[in-house]
Write a structure and sequence with these properties.
binds NADP nicotinamide-adenine-dinucleotide phosphate; 10 helices; about 20% strand; Dihydrofolate Reductase, subunit A; alpha/beta
Length: about 280
């Protein structure tokens, strides 16, 4: 199989404008299409990572059932595509709602992709990031103990210090291959703009967000999403309380809406894979 990382580590000679060159330097892991997109958006020179949201949803836009139980929406081809995307990223982020509902490890599953990252002097897995204002991450959460590498728990300043200490100590019990850093951003809720800046300062240039819908909506509201990839599965889950791609309170006024530009559309197994670029302002 082709080594994607090798493909991205050179600056594409077609990138000739100053802005594009800066983008290529700032986002060395990007495909030419991602690079082109970043150079067009205001984030090319900004202090935040390039952010890709990836989810699997049902044909009616649900991420899981009304019981918030994890369900199988996509098949092995999509699973492999997501693993590949993960392997290209420096960080992977979820909200605490997803950690409590699904208990994901967010590790790369393919041994070959892990080996390739090591060969390229990258950590075996992307930095795993939990957005968790009140330090509710369970001490036995898989994300904390499965696989080596760094974890970041993004907390608000209102988080209980004793609980934060307990989370930090998980790393001590796990030994030298596990690092847990707690970052405080925001007073009672994680301030996502501040967090993005902190992540960029820690070398996270490309960030994948796996959900859930509450976190994704807040990221749209903060204007920090560059690409949206959705696998749409061939089922209806239904339920007005089942999580969707973008929950929270949502936008009210039309000028607030996030606008998307269709980038690619293809059939994958019995579903559809759609990827969009996100406009930072309303298209003409
Ligand atoms: P979520 O988006 O994972 O996490 C939301 C939580 O993050 C908030 O309740 C909040 O809790 C915390 N948070 C902290 N700062 C925030 C901020 N600025 N903005 C937004 N959230 C912030 O949870 P969810 O919406 O309940 O989604 C979980 C569901 O999605 C599960 O059912 C899971 O199975 C599903 N899911 C599906 C997929 C898929 O691809 N199909 C992927 C992921 C998840 P605090 O206030 O306590 O910090």
């Amino acid at each position: 199989m082709e080594n994607d990382y090798d493909r991205y580590k050179y600056i594409d000679p077609r990138l000739i404008t100053m802005c594009e060159i800066v983008t290529a330097i700032s986002f060395p892991h990007m495909t030419p299409s991602m690079s082109e997109s970043a150079s067009c958006s205001s984030n090319a020179l900004s202090m935040r990572p390039y952010v890709i949201v990836n989810v699997a949803m049902s044909a009616d836009g649900k991420l899981s059932t009304r019981e918030r139980r994890q369900v199988k929406i996509s098949g092995k081809d999509d699973f492999s595509r997501v693993d590949e995307l993960k392997a290209e990223c420096d960080g992977i982020m979820v909200g605490i709602g997803t950690v409590l509902a699904d208990d994901p490890s967010l590790t790369i599953k393919s041994e070959m992709r892990i080996a390739m990252r090591r060969k390229n002097l990258r950590p075996p897995h992307p930095v795993r990031i939990i957005v968790d204002s009140m330090a509710k991450t369970p001490l036995d959460a898989k994300i904390l103990y499965k696989g080596e590498g760094k974890r970041i728990i993004a907390l608000s300043r209102a988080a209980d210090p004793a609980r934060v200490d307990q989370l930090r100590q998980v790393a001590m019990h796990r030994g030298e291959h596990v690092e847990i850093e707690c970052i405080f951003c925001g007073e009672t809720k994680v301030d996502l703009l501040e967090l993005c800046k902190e992540l960029k300062m820690r070398g996270i240039h490309m960030l994948m967000v796996e959900g859930g819908g509450t976190l994704i909506m807040s990221l749209f509201q903060a204007g920090v999403i560059d690409e949206l990839h959705t696998f749409i599965g061939n089922m209806i889950i239904g339920g007005k309380n089942a999580p969707t791609l973008a929950d929270g309170d949502g936008f009210v006024l039309e000028h607030e809406f996030s606008h998307l530009r269709l980038h690619a559309l293809s059939q994958m197994e019995d579903g559809v894979l759609v990827s969009w670029h996100v406009h930072t302002c309303m298209p003409e």
